[in-house]
Amino acid sequence: MERNASFISLTATEYRLLLVLIKNKGRVLSRVDLLESAWDINFNMETNVVDVYINYLRKKIDTDVNNKLIHTVVGMGYVLKEI
Amino acid sequence: MKTQSKIALVLFICNLTLVLIFGLGIYYFLNKYSFVDFYKRLETRAIITAKYNLEQDTLNAEAFKTIREQYFEKLEQERQYVFEVNATSTLSQAAKKYQLPLYFLKSVLKEGKTTSNDGNTFYAGIKYNLNNKLYLVVVTAENYYVSHHLRVLRNILFGGMFLIVLITIYLSIYFSKHIFDPIKQITDKVKQISTENIHLRLEEKDTNNNEISELTATFNDLLNRLETAFETQKNFISNASHELSTPLTSIIGEADVALIKERTVEDYQLAMQNILQQAERLDQITKSLVFLARTGYKGKKIIFEIVRTDEIIWEVKSLIDQLNHQNHIILDLNLLPEDEKRLKIKGNRQLLQLALANILNNACKHSHNKPVIVYLASSDNQVIIVIKDEGVGIPKEEIAYIYDPFFRASNTHLFEGYGIGLPLARNIIKLHEGQLTLTSEVNVGTTVQIKIPIARILKF
Questions:
Q1: Which residues contact B357 (CB under 8 A, 6 or more apart)?
Q2: Which CATH architecture has domain A29-83?
Q3: Is B263 helix (H, G, I), strand (E, B) or coil?
Q4: Which of A83, B211, B414, B427 could form a disulfide with B295 if both were Cys (CB 3.0 to 4.6 A apart)?
């Protein structure tokens, strides 16, 4: 992964999550949506997993930059906004 | 030379040397003192003799005579000579006349007074001037002290030394034997223990914490470990040969039956399929064995890299999902740390996957695909993975053997497997400097806890 010409390494899970966000950029995705599309999990699993991985992802791609990509929509989910 | 006799000899020589030094010292100093003492006595006598024989004053002479007779005991072979030395009677004449050594008389004349000895005969002489006449007074006697007292002393010393030597020899031998007695006992006992009776132990005397009891304890400890290793080896061989011979027997049987008469193509295909199945099983067992052997010994080159434990768990889960669609693995990631660095460990991806897959497979298998919960968390310095199933559990008395290769608990005969997975997983976790602990209760479930230290990295 590259952002602003700096190299960022992601784990497979983080990469899948980012891919889903990019494919649906501009759209608010709920935690359940993300869980199903990024993990293909169809049984009950705590949705905080999404929060944890969004957090990891944010730390990697959104630190030290002014225009953040991943935004939290309170009560709804997450959205990747275009710059 | 045995240590025992060496110690005896050293003790003996030391004692003998000390006693010799002591005895010789006494003899030497006493001998020297007796010389000095005797010369003094002879000198006193010479003076008195001179006074007694040469003093003009009769009264004085009488007094000296009385002193001499009353207070001086007669010395052995005591002789007194008083003679005048002048031009007519020379020293050599006197020496001849009185049988005195000439050199002695000369030295008396020269020095004024001198002492000397010739063997046991001692001489003391003084020069005495009276009325312008020169006299020499010589007293000679045998030193009874040397000739008699010292001889007695010498005999006593020699006798005592001989006695001491005897006692020393006895004591040295006795002590050296006594000191090595317990060691000899231990040696004899250990000699009796062989592979046949390796359960035998040395008798531990709890009297005190000396070196001997420490040695005994060490030996027993060693025997314990040896016995365990021996038992493990025995079990391994019997289990391994059983596990390996079962598929082989099936292959041989299947081929044998197929070859009895001519059969249809379908029959042959069926037989070949069965043979293939058994051969694959054999292959799997040997492969696992190779893995186990490889992880059992350190020093083999295994490439370690920084890996994320959560990723490995995801990978293992998808792997198991492919193989066993009925599995019911739940990942509980509520305790995942805020900082992803705390999920990173130094490890080998393939080996860790293998270990976790083995444990998860066991959990699914032995619980008939009931839910298996996997917790992942991390403390300050360790990543903690807990795998909890609701399976058949392991009987309490068999928990001690679960890490023995090929061991299978008594309640697992309904499940397929050959008892390599858990020891392999444990070896792998150990390779990563981690710990694998297992608690289990029959018909309630088994919990496996894995702790692996977090990689120490500053920047990546």
A1: B316, B319, B320
A2: Orthogonal Bundle (1.10)
A3: coil
A4: B427
Q: Which of B350, B336, B448, B258 is nearest to A50 (CA)?
A: B336
By CB neighbour count within 10 A (0-12 exposed, 13-18 middle, 19+ buried), where does B432 fall? Answer: buried
**What are the CA-CA distances from residue B77 to residues B72, B126, B212 (Å)?**
14, 19, 68
- The reply to whether residue A59 touches residue B311, judged by beta carbons under 8 angstroms, is no
Give me the tens of pLDDT residue by residue for chain A, a chain 83 residues long: 556 556 777 888 888 888 888 888 888 888 777 877 777 665 555 667 788 888 888 888 777 667 778 888 887 788 887 65
Cα gap B171→B429, rounded to integer Å:
60
3-state DSSP of B161-188: HHHHHHHHHHHHHHHHHHHHHHHHHHHH
pLDDT band at B459, cuts 50/70/90? very low
C-beta neighbour count of B392 within 10 angstroms? 21
The model's pLDDT over B231-240, given as tens digits with 9 standing for 90+, comes to: 777 777 776 7
Q: Please, which residues have CB within 8 angstroms of residue A75's CB and are 6 or more apart in sequence?
A: none
Q: CA B18 to CA B160: how far, in whole Å?
A: 13
Interval B46-51 mean pLDDT: 81
CB A36 within 8 A of CB A24: no
State the pairing for strand pair B435-441/B305-308. unpaired
pLDDT of A40: 65
What pLDDT, in 10s, does the model give residues B144-174? Answer: 777 788 888 889 988 988 998 898 888 888 8
Amino acid (one-letter) located at B157: L
- Which residues on A lie below 8 Å from B338 (Cβ)? 55
DSSP B197-232: TTT-------S---HHHHHHHHHHHHHHHHHHHHHH
Query: Do the interacting molecules here have an ipTM over 0.85?
Result: no
Angle CA(B352)–CA(A53)–CA(B335) in degrees, nearest 5? 70
Q: Chain A residues with CB inside 8 Å of B370's CB?
A: none
Contact yes or no for B331 and A49 at CB 8 A? yes
For B2, which DSSP code? -
Residue A13 tokens, joined: 């899970």
Cβ(B55)–Cβ(B65) below 8 Å:
no
Q: Which domains does chain B have, with CATH numbers?
A: 3-151 (no CATH), 211-296 (1.10.287.130), 305-453 (3.30.565.10)
Identify the CA nearest to B458 among candidates B365, B369, B357, B344: B344
Tell me the three state secondary structure of residue B334.
coil
Q: How far apart are CA B424 and CA B440, in angstroms?
A: 19
Gap from A6 CA to chain B (nearest CA, Å):
13
- Closest by Cα among B23, B109, B113, B38 to B77: B38
Which residues of chain A neighbour B331 with C-beta distances below 8 Å? 45, 49
- The DSSP code sequence of B72-111 is PPPPTT-EEEEEE-SSSS-HHHHHHHHT--HHHHHHHHHH
